[in-house]
Amino acid sequence: QVQPVESGGGVVQPGGSLRLSCQASGFTLSSYGMSWYRQAPGKERDLVGLMSTSGTTTYVSSVRGRFAISRDNAKNTMYLQMNSLKPEDTAVYYCYRAGDYWGQGTQVTVSS
Fold it and tell me: How far is Cα 78 from Cα 25, in angstroms, rounded to an integer?
């Protein structure tokens, strides 16, 4: 069964860091373009960034320079390193694979 599985969310103070993981189940992660999305309470799900099959990354302006997507092919896992976190980064973060495959999401809360 094709399923991305996120982990690594939690509560962090402003200015702190978290690393989210997206474990690919049922498929080889490096064979697909993969994305991170987030959904804040009462808002739509928005793109955070993406990684192509070649490893090229692209980010939305609000996270560029603070967030970084990486991939470990041996572990079949993608990561989202989030630094300098702000309260407005609070959201459920989702991993997405083309073909409409979503993970269950992991909550990130940035609060003092």
Answer: 12
